[in-house]
Amino acid sequence: MADVLSALPYVEEREVADAAALDAMLRGADRPFVLRGLARDWPLVQAGLRSAAEARQYLLQHAVERLFVVSVAAPETEGRMFYDDAMQMNFRTSKGTLPTIFAKIDEGERQEQSPAIYLASIDVHEHFRGLHDANHIDLGSRDALASIWIGTKTRIAAHNDFPDNLACCAAGRRRFTLLPPEQFRNLYLGPVDNTPAGRAISMVDFENPDFAAHPRFRDAMDHAQVAELEPGDALFIPSMWWHHVQGLAPFNVLVNYWWRDTPRFLGQPQDALNHAMMTIRDLPAKDRKIWRDLFDHYVFDADESVTAHIPEKARSVLAPLTAETAGRLRAFLLRTLSR
């Protein structure tokens, strides 16, 4: 399958002159693109270009004295952070100080076979002091969450995220295989409540796919694109696009930014999907049809006809939500769920 992946088309590459141009490019973007060298001037990138050891030392200089969550997988997993045969995680998660974790990575670099070590989605502001100030992308008025991902060679199963994502390779090399949102049926998704990191993942091994078990995956590959990032390169991943991620170097660092164009008080759509599975999916077909019609009326096809007959001041949560009405609705849901 490696030959198939290498034959996939590459993600479009673009160029930006400054922060204003980047802001304009990101606004309304709905397809992935690569920006070569966007973060090339970061001190972290420059340290990593000199050596992996210098990149680790640079990070240690900025690390806060606190515990970091780290995942470790046995050498035989070959860095694939996934399920075992019992559908439990094939890695163990614990906490440790960053110097201790990096010492294990140092040790592994001297061994022929070593465990995969992975620090995933570490909040930059909470775990490092001054790192963001010296190494960040100007995203204008976007209220972005900055995360850092640090690890040895790893393979992260295809998954998607609700926010938009700008991922910057700070050290090592990364390969992303991307697919549009509608390809979820061809990716053979796993459980929604037993996941490596909170999002359902593809059960297909992109490096060694079993087409007998996952025949529709061939159709998914017809829509796939690849982005290979060197230090300083950035990739924009639109909301809900599927991405399989490989850390290709012995030591890899990625910094990414998540943001959404809608207010955070609107909550997470995945919560609504989970609740619908609990309350609607197993109803008789005739009842599901009624609820589908109601969802269309109030959610998917909602227009002025939903509220035209209700006095404007009495429309409450049927009107466009505000922070106040969203909070009131959330409190109502919490009361009903706790019964």
TrEMBL record:
Residue span(s) of domain JmjC: 111-274
InterPro entries in alphabetical order: Cupin_8, JmjC_dom, RmlC-like_jellyroll
Pfam families associated with the record: Cupin_8
Recorded superkingdom: Bacteria
PANTHER family per record: HYPOXIA-INDUCIBLE FACTOR 1 ALPHA INHIBITOR-RELATED, HYPOXIA-INDUCIBLE FACTOR 1-ALPHA INHIBITOR
Protein name per the record: Cupin-like domain-containing protein
Organism: Croceicoccus ponticola
Upper lineage: Bacteria, Pseudomonadati, Pseudomonadota, Alphaproteobacteria, Sphingomonadales
